[in-house]
Amino acid sequence: MPHFTRNSSQTETPLLKTHITGVLAHGRGAWAFMWPDRFVQGPNVTIQVLHTVLCELSQSGGLPPTLYVQLDNPTSENKNKFVMTYLAFLVHHRVFEKIRLSFLPVGHTHENIDQMFSRFAAKLRLNDAVTYDDMIALITASFSPTPVVSELKKVMKHNTNTLRHNTHTHT
What gap in Å lies between CA 2 and CA 129, rounded to an integer? Predict the structure, then answer.
């Protein structure tokens, strides 16, 4: 960030590397979460994204008894004890009766999520995005259903603020 359609080596402006995580809830909507490189990719991002989307879905029509989750294959982000524990937590607390988890095969190119990212890339190839707001506008205009686009740092700050008054130390 900023993102320029020309080769980034042609500019002297230092660029902020930006990551995007996408979610498709079939029949319910699409989400794209952006965050700067200073946030480490890993289970915290995966769990935060899942939690945010599940909260939004819960408020807009409820949740099904079975959650089907299909994740990309990286062990460091998705195949780890933290994500598994979060999913087990959801079942234990009866948010879902069961969760079916699967991982995309290496080199997947025909999944719906790949199509969403393909549309993002096509739009960005033709347009500059100097600010986060520019990037959000391009991503929003690139795919149908129109994705809800959020900066992950704002989502994390919001969730931290809403939890602040509900936690107590027990000794």
Answer: 6
